């Protein structure tokens, strides 16, 4: 590989060439970009000279950002601090293959199989190194999921709605139809998008995620569609953009409701023609990319308000998945609690095995407005602070006990009271009798009172559980769980 500039290869504006291999010299960069395996070319001083597009997708660093940095600041491997494989390569002159974790620019820990090989000069000295990374997340996930009874991809659940989604995903994954995923924050929209990609014929290709709400409009256009050299002040090099980086794979556009109207037009054009037009270029580029979009917003309402194009909504909404909130997933709460206790106990090297009955009852009746993400964080906190095998109520985050004034339980903030000791300030829904303390009545406790409230609501609703849940101010799933807890038969 030669350099047709007078500067070193770590400088900006370099166009290294491959000579003597083909009939004429070819540029090394585009050649390495055609290889789907993430590759990095590293100098003897361990500075990054080049990373191909696959490596840019994996690490999150662009070529401009990575070039010239020490490789440990780009690869960010768990081996970098004191077990650098390049030291062994330097000593032995032979290639080394190791399993490790890298941390991407988005702070995602990614398990990889890394191969380090020396690049030898004609005199046998080391001219540099090549590092090849293989993403082994799918292999590790398959090993872990062998013990799972319910789930698809990284998602687990056995509620009716989730089982319906799990049944649909394999079929939808085999098509190239655009997919729109809706649902509240924390319901697992990202996991569903990745599961669709991994179950598709594009699984060997890149899965590229772009948060449409994270960048200003001017930067987002360049990030998505790329730009040509000199397209604007500071554009010293051409940039491929995320569409081209996702070629033969999937582009996941999260927070699609935040996409500016001007870029909605460009996205619509791509969906129609499969051609993108980089900034500053008059030539279109064909890319083979499947679009999966996600949002927590009501896009139909945004269409009515003129904030989202109706034609784009129709093009994205070819297949729609709606991720239900956790409060409507019934027994999935228990499944998640047990799953995350196991995960974090393993990760933190603890012997926590589960929850006490009081803690479990409390969590089962908490509404989790932050959905699965909040539940995961709660369990992580509990495992962190718990010094025994069983998580008790005192190990739960304190904020769970604090219910905003005037917010009825089961509406997204509160927790239903424990059977024998309802929290202070907890009142029954409007229209229902106030609880009578056991001290005042001498006979009736909260569990008896709550059971009576449910029976009264069912009587008032003439047995219709939907209406009874409305009267109680609870979600239907909450009423269902409590009826089961109090062994109330539905008529």
TrEMBL record:
Compositional bias (Pro residues): 419-433
Name of the featured protein: PAS modulated sigma54 specific transcriptional regulator, Fis family
Keywords linked to the UniProt accession: ATP-binding, Nucleotide-binding, Transcription, Transcription regulation
Region (Disordered): 411-433
Residue ranges annotated for the PAS domain, each copy included: 31-68
Any single GO BP term: regulation of DNA-templated transcription
Pfam families: AAA_lid_14, HTH_8, PAS_9, Sigma54_activat
Keyword Cell membrane appears in the UniProt entry: no
PANTHER family: C4-DICARBOXYLATE TRANSPORT TRANSCRIPTIONAL REGULATORY PROTEIN DCTD, TRANSCRIPTIONAL REGULATORY PROTEIN
Transmembrane segments: none
Gene Ontology MF term list: ATP binding; sequence-specific DNA binding
Sigma-54 factor interaction domain residues: 155-384
């Amino acid at each position: 590989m030669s350099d047709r500039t007078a500067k070193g290869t770590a400088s900006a504006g370099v166009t290294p060439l491959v000579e003597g291999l083909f009939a004429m010299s070819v540029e090394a960069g585009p050649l390495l970009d055609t290889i789907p395996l993430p590759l990095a070319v590293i100098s003897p001083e361990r500075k990054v000279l080049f990373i191909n597009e696959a490596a840019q997708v994996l690490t999150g660093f662009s070529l401009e950002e990575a070039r010239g940095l020490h490789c440990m600041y780009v690869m960010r491997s768990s081996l970098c601090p004191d077990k650098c494989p390049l030291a062994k390569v330097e000593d032995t002159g032979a290639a080394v293959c190791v399993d490790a974790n890298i941390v991407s620019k988005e702070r995602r820990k990614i398990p990889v199989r890394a191969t380090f090989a020396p690049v030898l000069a004609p005199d046998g000295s080391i001219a540099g190194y090549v590092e090849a990374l293989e993403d082994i997340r799918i292999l590790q996930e398959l090993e872990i999921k062998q013990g799972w009874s319910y789930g698809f991809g990284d998602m687990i659940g056995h509620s009716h709605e989730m089982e319906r989604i799990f049944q649909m995903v394999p079929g939808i994954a085999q098509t190239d139809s655009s997919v729109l995923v809706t649902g509240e924050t924390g319901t697992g929209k990202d996991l569903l998008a990745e599961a669709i990609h991994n179950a598709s014929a594009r699984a060997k290709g890149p899965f590229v995620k772009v948060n449409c709400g994270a960048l200003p409009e001017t930067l987002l256009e360049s990030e998505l569609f790329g730009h040509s050299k000199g397209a604007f002040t500071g554009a010293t090099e051409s940039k491929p953009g995320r569409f081209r980086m996702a070629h033969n794979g999937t582009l996941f556009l999260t927070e699609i409701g935040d996409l500016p109207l001007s870029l909605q037009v460009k996205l619509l054009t791509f969906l129609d023609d499969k051609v993108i037009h980089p900034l500053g270029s008059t030539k279109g580029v064909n890319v083979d990319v499947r679009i999966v979009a996600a949002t927590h917003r009501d896009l139909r309402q945004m269409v009515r308000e003129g904030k989202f194009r109706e034609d784009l909504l129709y093009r994205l909404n070819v297949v729609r998945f709606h991720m239900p909130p956790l409060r409507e997933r019934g027994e999935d709460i228990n499944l998640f609690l047990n799953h995350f206790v196991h995960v974090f106990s393993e990760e933190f090297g603890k012997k926590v095995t589960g929850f006490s009955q009081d803690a479990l009852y409390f969590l089962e009746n908490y509404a989790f407005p932050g959905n699965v993400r909040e539940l995961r964080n709660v369990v992580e906190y509990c495992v962190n602070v718990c010094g025994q095998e069983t998580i008790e109520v005192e190990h739960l985050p304190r904020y769970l006990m604090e219910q905003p004034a005037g917010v009825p339980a089961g509406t997204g903030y509160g927790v239903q009271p424990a059977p024998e000791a309802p929290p202070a300030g907890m009142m029954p829904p409007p229209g229902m009798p106030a609880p009578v303390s056991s001290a005042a009545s001498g006979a009736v406790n909260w569990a008896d009172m709550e059971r009576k409230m449910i029976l009264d609501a069912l009587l008032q609703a003439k047995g219709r559980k939907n209406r009874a849940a409305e009267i109680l101010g609870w979600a239907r799933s909450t009423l269902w769980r409590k009826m089961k807890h109090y062994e109330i038969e539905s008529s």
